[in-house]
C-alpha cells in the first residue's frame, strides 16, 4: 500500500513515540516506585522506670526506644527530643512529620496490669498534617502498627506472669490486658476542608504557572506587534513587565476567590495566600517572558516540559523521592518553591510562617526582570543597526 511508503507516516510514528516517551518520563518517571525513607519523626521518652516488688526496675519507655531506633524496617529517622513542648515546636517549624510521646507513667501503667486496679498508660502519636498529608498518614499508620505490636508483646508477657500466679484472672485485668498501652492520635496544622487532602498548594501552583504562561505569551505577541506598528522598541518592551505584573495580581486574586467561593476551599489566610500567589505568579511571568524574549517560541517547549516534569513532585515529600529526582529536578524547579511557600502560608500561620521560599522567588523575579529588560535593550540596538544599514 502506498500509505506505508509515505515519509510523513513514519515521521508521525517517530514523533508520537518521542512525545509519549518524554511525557511518560515526566509524569511517571520521578514518582513511580518512590518509597519513603528517612522521614524525620520526633521521639519523646518521658517514662520513669517503675520499681517492681521483686526489686527489679521496669523501663518500658527505654525498651520501646531501643526497639524503634534499632528497627531498620521503618522508613523513619528518629530525632530524640527532651520534652513534648520541644517536639511541638519542631512540628511548628516543619522539622518533623510527626512525633511519638511516651508519658511519665508508661512503666507504672504497664506494671499496674499485674495488680487489682489496672490503669493503662496513654501513648500519644502526633501527625503534622499540614507539612504533608501523605507523609503524615505514613507516620501515623506506621507508629500505630508499631505500638500495637509492642502492646501485644506486653500483653503476652503479663499474661504469662499472671498465669503462673493463678489460674483465674480478674475480669478487669483481662480487659486491660487487651490493650495495656492506649494510643491517642492527634493531627496538628490540619489542612482544612476541600483542600484536596492537603494537595491544594500544588494545584494552585500549577494553575498559576499556566495562567502566567498564557499571560506571558499574549503580551509577548502584543509587544512584538506594537514594536512593528510604532517602530519604537523600548516603550513597547517596557510595558511587558508593567502590564504583566498588574494582570498577574488580578489573576492570582481571581484564583483565590474561585477556590474559596466556587469550590469551598477553606483558606484561613486568604489575603496572605493571594499576596504570595501574586509574588509567585510574578516570578513565573518574568521567567517565562524573559525566555520568550531571548529565545522566542522554542521557549514554550522548555516551559511546558518544565511544568510536566514538576507537576508529579509538587505534593510529594522530599523524603519520598529518589536521590536522582531530588538532585536533578526537585532541588531547582521554581514550582516547588511556590508549592512549599503556599503550604507554609495556608497551614502554618500566614506570611509570618514563610521561610526561604519567598526569598528564592524574589531572587528569581528580580533576576529575570533584569534579563527581560536587557533583552529589550539588545533588540533595540539590533533594530537601530538594521535601520542604519538599510539607509
Automatic annotation (TrEMBL):
It is a multi-pass membrane protein. Gene3D superfamilies: abc type-2 transporter like domain. The keyword Plastid does not apply. Its main location: membrane. It is found in: Membrane. It holds the Pfam family ABC2_membrane_3. InterPro entries: ABC2_TM (IPR013525), T7SS_ABC-Transporter (IPR051328). Residues 13-373 form the ABC-2 type transporter transmembrane domain. Keywords: Membrane, Transmembrane, Transmembrane helix. The chain crosses the membrane at residues 203-222, 242-263, 269-287, 294-314, 359-377. PANTHER family: PHAGE INFECTION PROTEIN (PTHR43077:SF5), TRANSPORT PERMEASE YVFS-RELATED (PTHR43077). This is YhgE/Pip domain-containing protein. The lineage of its organism: Bacteria, Bacillati, Bacillota, Bacilli, Bacillales.
Amino acid at each position: 500500500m502506498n500509505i506505508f511508503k509515505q515519509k510523513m507516516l513514519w515521521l508521525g510514528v517517530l514523533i508520537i513515540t518521542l512525545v509519549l516517551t518524554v511525557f511518560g518520563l515526566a509524569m511517571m518517571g520521578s514518582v513511580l516506585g518512590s518509597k519513603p525513607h528517612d522521614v524525620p519523626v520526633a521521639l519523646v521518652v518521658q517514662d520513669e522506670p517503675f520499681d517492681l516488688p521483686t526489686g527489679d526496675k521496669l523501663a518500658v519507655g527505654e525498651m520501646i526506644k531501643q526497639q524503634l531506633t534499632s528497627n531498620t524496617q521503618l522508613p523513619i529517622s528518629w530525632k530524640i527530643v527532651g520534652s513534648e513542648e520541644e517536639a511541638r515546636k519542631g512540628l511548628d517549624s516543619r522539622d518533623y512529620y510527626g512525633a511519638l510521646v511516651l508519658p511519665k507513667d508508661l512503666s507504672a501503667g504497664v506494671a499496674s496490669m499485674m495488680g487489682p486496679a489496672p490503669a493503662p498508660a496513654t501513648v500519644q502519636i502526633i501527625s503534622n498534617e499540614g507539612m504533608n498529608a501523605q507523609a503524615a498518614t505514613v507516620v501515623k499508620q506506621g507508629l500505630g502498627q508499631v505500638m500495637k505490636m509492642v502492646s501485644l508483646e506486653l500483653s503476652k508477657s503479663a499474661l504469662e506472669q499472671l498465669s503462673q500466679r493463678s489460674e483465674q484472672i480478674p475480669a478487669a485485668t483481662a480487659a486491660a490486658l487487651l490493650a495495656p498501652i492506649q494510643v491517642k492520635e492527634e493531627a496538628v496544622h490540619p489542612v482544612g476542608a476541600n483542600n484536596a487532602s492537603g494537595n491544594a498548594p500544588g494545584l494552585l501552583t500549577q494553575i498559576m504557572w499556566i495562567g502566567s504562561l498564557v499571560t506571558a505569551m499574549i503580551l509577548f505577541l502584543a509587544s512584538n506587534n506594537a514594536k512593528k506598528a510604532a517602530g519604537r522598541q523600548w516603550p513597547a518592551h517596557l510595558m511587558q513587565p508593567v502590564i504583566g505584573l498588574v494582570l498577574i495580581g488580578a489573576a492570582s486574586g481571581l484564583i483565590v476567590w474561585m477556590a474559596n467561593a466556587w469550590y469551598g476551599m477553606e483558606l484561613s489566610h486568604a489575603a496572605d495566600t493571594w499576596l504570595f500567589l501574586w509574588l509567585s505568579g510574578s516570578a513565573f511571568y518574568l521567567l517565562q517572558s524573559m525566555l520568550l524574549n531571548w529565545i522566542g517560541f522554542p521557549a514554550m517547549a522548555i516551559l511546558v516540559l518544565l511544568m510536566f516534569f514538576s507537576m508529579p513532585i509538587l505534593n510529594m515529600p522530599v523524603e519520598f523521592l529518589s536521590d536522582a529526582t531530588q538532585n536533578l529536578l526537585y532541588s531547582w524547579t521554581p514550582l516547588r518553591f511556590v508549592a512549599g511557600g503556599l503550604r507554609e502560608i495556608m497551614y502554618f500561620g500566614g506570611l509570618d510562617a514563610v521561610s526561604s521560599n519567598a526569598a528564592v522567588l524574589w531572587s528569581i523575579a528580580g533576576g529575570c526582570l533584569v534579563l527581560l529588560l536587557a533583552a529589550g535593550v539588545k533588540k533595540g540596538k539590533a533594530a537601530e543597526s538594521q535601520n542604519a544599514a538599510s539607509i
